[in-house]
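Page 37, top half.
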Amino acid sequence: MGILAQHVPSIEQLKPGLVEIIEEAGGSKQFFLSGGFATVQPDSQLSINAVEGYPLEDFSAESVRNQISEAQKIASGSGSEQDKAEANIELEVLESLQAALK
């Protein structure tokens, strides 16, 4: 999703993934969000409301791979249904993070 001048006002749900902010000076910053909402105002101002957001450089590919492996063990194990459901949610977020790191 890109926001340009005169963008139509809208509200969009954000799934876990990468957000890149391109600055007027030409630089950019990348953040991984666990999900949330993006709201475009009538004056093309963008607001992002997210539960969690971290600079992409805070993550290592190796650490994410290890966390995915652990979550997969729990999701396919013999634990409670709640533990399995939580592990599946964790897997969705971690797999999105892993894709963003590539």
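Page 37, bottom half:
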Amino acid sequence: MGKIIAFINQKGGVGKTTTTTSVAAALANMGHRTLVIDLDGQCNLTTSFGVEDMTVNSYNTMKGEKPFKAVEIYPKLHVLPSSLDLSAFELEMATEPGKEYLLKELLTPVLARYDYILWDCSPNLGLISVNALSAADFYIIPLLPHHLSIQGLTKLMEVTDKVKRRINSKLELGGIVITQYNNHKVLHKDIAEVIKSHFGEKLFSTFIRENISLAEATSSGTDVFRYAPKSNGAEDYLSLAQEITNI
């Protein structure tokens, strides 16, 4: 049965989609059957993998309008794309009974097909993110090495704690990953120390270094392992994926 991991942060621009995309590709390259689901109405993960056919997507499958059917990127990696219609999801499903469990219900028939199922969550803490946390075993927080990023953690931890108490008792913090890290910047080192002092071993030992190949891969509609397999970005995300398999 697949291990379900939500990549979540309510702040945009922290490398959440890049991290989800790259970890999914790394897991697949390691031989794990991997499904990644785009839960962001901006569809960034969908376009990052070059997916153009969004006929079946996370919006209409959660609403029960379409049966689950993921797009094969390569044999071990499948993607369920997003839809611009996700922006209306929260309003449309406001009175739906059990609305927090729609994703969990969607996954039940396909769990046995995959070793890992990853969510790329929307950069807000609304109904879609609650659905993701309700179905997840773990959540991972991508974080920039900036003071404002640390301040935003408080609200996120409040939400995840409530979901754990009220909806999903098995939910755990899988870890925090620092992205866009530059070892030559004193601020980045200081922030890493602050996070380490608060979260201890929950801070992944792999830091994702600043690397232009990650942005170039995304704009090319592919993952960093296919775009620049010898880059720092590929090296870092392979290391992070190996850490994740040990959670």
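Margin note: The mean pLDDT is 94.
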